[in-house]
Specification:
- It comes from Pontixanthobacter luteolus.
- InterPro entries: FAD-bd (IPR002938), FAD/NAD-bd_sf (IPR036188), Geranylgeranyl_Rdtase_fam (IPR011777), Geranylgeranyl_reductase (IPR050407).
- This is Geranylgeranyl reductase family protein.
- One of its GO terms (molecular function) is oxidoreductase activity, acting on the CH-CH group of donors, NAD or NADP as acceptor.
- The strands form four sheets. Strands 4, 5, 12, 13, 14, 15, 16 and 17 form an eight-stranded mixed sheet that branches. Strands 7-2-1-11-19-18 form a six-stranded mixed sheet.
- The longest helix has 29 residues.
- It folds into three domains: about 220 residues, 3-Layer(bba) Sandwich (FAD/NAD(P)-binding domain), CATH 3.50.50.60; about 90 residues, D-Amino Acid Oxidase, Chain A, domain 2; about 130 residues, no CATH class.
- With about 500 residues, the chain is an alpha/beta fold.
- The protein contains 16 helices and 19 strands.
Length: about 500
């Protein structure tokens, strides 16, 4: 830490997004400092899963060896529970090694991942300052000033550019008037590490239960009998229905011992920790006079899975080019950083807005039975229909989301479901057995039941939810007008093109 506290760029936050931003800027010879409130290594609430696209970035950054990726178990299979029923147990069909990505993911605990990425930024030339608690950010005479408590003293830092990579409670976002508190787009979670787990270390496990809808749980093996286990829900739901996430989490951990044979003897090795994320659907803008927001601070989180490691790193690589251009022009007004919003929208909107549309539809808890039934049928179909699994599976954790192809598969399946259900109804009526209660008729009854319950519970909220669906649908243009998802090639390709 230099005495003057003056830099070209100050990055607030040293997680994956902040470390990647610092590395990307330092690689270009830009004088950058990272202010990180904690002393690494430190705990971070997360599922620890790094998907193939994230591994591609880590490899490009030169961190693969530091993280020992070659010796870690390769996650290329998944098991999905609906209640006690296994709906899917097979390989991850869309992990096919395309575009330079490995055909697997890795579980990398965040205290290891974040430390390696931040050390890599320091090796590239970034000035990393730990135990720097940022208290205030403001702009004076065209310069950004960041006041922080560093160790036991206070220190002021200045730079023409500040990057907010400081998470959901971002001080930088608060300065810019961009901190988000819309609970429709906030996910909350609980996570714990379990010991005594006996499971295939190449298989991730997820589960869905009606008591924590909309949301899901996970168990990801970290090796040597340990696993990362947790669950997440939508913040809006827990508030509206008075649900205790902590209690739901404890109950889920108890059920896990009976459902997954590998967790029968599991014990909690750590205390449960809670966290929150802001998801992509809640983004308004992420630029302001003097800087940008990336990672969790900017809402770069998958609206279906709440994954954000890869998206955060991608947002930083994209944003680094905007910052470099502003420094070259020596102009740092709001308009100088507007390009970042254009660039990340061009990169992410194709898939993310489509996922946000589905997340919006599914956030009505009263329709939980209907959507759980439909998605369970989807997993069961994917078990044997590998093309369906490859295409539609990307809607829950895949990178190369292809909205037109997914819509085609889904609507074809729905039409078949209706046709088969109609034929079954006619056959039962002709045979004098009455109208069946399962199949298409059963799903239709679940839909009607959900609709009535939602209207009866809160008609105003129900109407606002429908309006949100319409607004989300109206944003789907980029999802269907582009033939290729820009994320497939990765952020470095997007950076070169821009």
């Amino acid at each position: 830490m230099r005495a003057s506290g003056r830099y070209d760029v100050i990055v607030v936050g040293g997680g994956p997004a902040g470390a990647t931003m610092a590395w990307a800027l330092a690689q270009q010879g830009i004088d950058v400092a990272v202010l990180e409130r904690a002393s690494f290594p430190r705990e971070k609430v997360c599922g620890d899963f790094v998907e193939p696209a994230g591994l591609r970035i880590i490899e490009r950054m030169g961190c693969a060896d530091a993280l020992g990726l070659k010796s870690r178990a390769k996650i290329d299979k998944v098991r999905a529970y609906y209640g006690p029923h296994i709906a899917y147990q097979n390989d991850v069909a869309y992990y096919d090694g395309e575009a330079g990505m490995p055909p697997h993911g890795h579980i990398v605990p965040r205290h290891e991942l974040d430390t390696a990425l931040l050390e890599n930024a320091a090796k590239a030339g970034a000035d990393v300052i730990h135990q720097a608690l940022v208290r205030e950010v403001h702009r004076e005479d065209g310069l950004m000033r960041v006041d922080a408590k560093v160790g036991k003293g206070n220190k002021s830092f200045t730079a023409p550019v500040v990057v907010g990579a400081d998470g959901v409670q971002s001080v930088v976002a608060a300065h810019a008037g961009l901190r988000r508190d819309d609970k429709r787009h906030i996910g909350i979670s609980q996570r714990v590490y379990l010991d005594g787990v006996e499971m295939d270390e190449s298989e991730a496990c997820i589960w869905f239960d009606e008591d924590h809808y909309p949301g899901y749980g996970w168990v990801f093996p970290t090796g040597n009998g340990r696993a990362n286990a947790g669950m997440g829900m939508l913040s809006e739901t827990t508030e509206r229905f008075g649900i205790s996430l902590q209690q739901s989490f404890r109950e889920s951990m108890d059920r896990l011992k009976y459902r997954h044979p590998g967790c029968a003897n599991a014990v909690m090795a750590t205390k449960p920790l809670g966290g929150a994320v802001h998801m992509y659907g809640g983004i308004t803008r992420n630029h302001f006079a003097g800087g940008i927001l990336v990672g969790d601070a900017g809402g770069f989180v998958d609206p279906m899975t709440a994954e954000g490691i890869t998206q955060g790193m991608e947002s930083s690589i994209i944003g680094a080019s905007t910052i470099a251009a502003a420094l070259e022009r020596e102009s740092f007004e709001e308009a100088d950083f507007a390009r970042f919003d254009d660039d990340f929208r061009d990169y992410f909107d194709h898939g993310m807005l489509y996922l946000s549309f589905y997340a919006t539809m599914m956030r009505n808890r009263h329709f939980g039975d209907f959507f759980l039934s439909m998605t369970q049928q989807g997993f069961e179909r994917a078990q044997t229909d590998r093309e369906f699994a490859r295409v539609c599976g990307t809607g829950f954790g895949g990178l190369n989301v292809q909205p037109a192809a997914i819509a085609s598969q889904l609507w074809t399946g729905i039409a078949r479901h209706i046709a088969e259900g109609g034929a079954a109804v006619l056959a039962d009526l002709v045979a004098g057995r009455g109208i069946p209660r399962d199949g298409f008729v059963g799903d239709w009854n679940l839909w009607q039941s959900g609709w009535r319950a939602s209207v009866d519970d809160d008609r105003a909220w129900h109407m606002s939810w429908l309006a949100d669906i319409v607004r989300a649908a109206m944003k789907l243009g980029p999802s269907f007008t582009r033939k290729e998802n820009p994320r497939l090639k990765g952020p470095f390709a997007a950076e070169l093109e821009s």
